[in-house]
């Protein structure tokens, strides 16, 4: 299109539709190749396969707390972001394992890593339900805290709405896909054309579990303001921790000791 010219109505409608379709495709970036495991980081783990309620086989890793961990057990149920797979989180897994002394169960959504099926919003919710059912069936999970990063924050919020956790930790959470569309294409009204919702803002007020939100103040993907708005809409008890200098994908690195302390203090505050 030449500068200074506007498209006709038909071309504009087509452009909006294509943009919406592209955004839906850009929500999920599954990677099938597992390049590392907890064993690569010196951690003992159980390689777990689950079958969801819609008969999809998904994969997860259960990493027990260090032997020296004391007190009543806590299990962190971890929902990762929209790109890669479990193997991209091994370094952070090692850091959380060493500093928090909790059990950790993390899963790959359908189509990610060794999980089968085709990813969708509804599918990620069913994957989360299967993961929680697995923990409950184990019988040794103790208190369960949901931990969602980015896309995983929306999965954690929906699971918390369906099944109350002992605590909820959201890292770099976004308000909804429609609100993110305003960030990605602010001049095009494509939000209404996108079927995927992940609308955490409309759900957070129905959750009464203790909440911790962490967000980097230099996040270049999900605006810091999204985390603040979600926090404002949430019920007490709640905490907000600003990860100073952190972007979207370096939170635990940029956050350093303060990041770990925010986790540890929140976990210590949970009722036994």
Keywords:
272 residues; alpha/beta; Rossmann fold; eight-stranded mixed sheet; two-stranded parallel ribbon; 10 strands; 37% helix; disordered N terminus
From the N-terminal CA to the C-terminal CA, the straight-line distance is: 63 Å
Query: Strands across the major sheet, in which order?
Result: 2-3-6-4-7-8-9-10
Number of domains: 1
- Summed over residues and divided by their number, the pLDDT gives a mean of 89
Figure out the total of helices: 8
CATH fold-level label: Rossmann fold
Element pattern in H and E: HEEEEEHEHEHEHHEHEH
Largest beta sheet, briefly? 8 strands, mixed
Second CATH tier, the architecture: 3-Layer(aba) Sandwich
The unreliable regions are: 1-20
Structure description:
The protein is α/β, with parallel strands linked by helices and 272 residues long. It has a single domain (33-269), classed as Alpha/Beta hydrolase fold, catalytic domain (Rossmann fold, 3-Layer(aba) Sandwich). 37% of the residues lie in helices and 19% in strands. It is built from 8 helices and 10 strands. The chain has helices spanning 9-27, 90-100, 121-138, 151-162, 177-184, 200-203, 224-233, 251-269, and strands spanning 29-30, 46-51, 57-63, 74-79, 83-84, 103-107, 143-149, 167-171, 211-216, 238-243. The protein has an 8-stranded mixed β-sheet, sandwiched between helices. A two-stranded parallel ribbon has the order 1-5. Helix 2 (90-100) runs parallel beside helix 8 and helix 3 crosses helix 4 (151-162). The longest helix has 19 residues, at 9-27. The model is unreliable at 1-20 (pLDDT under 50).
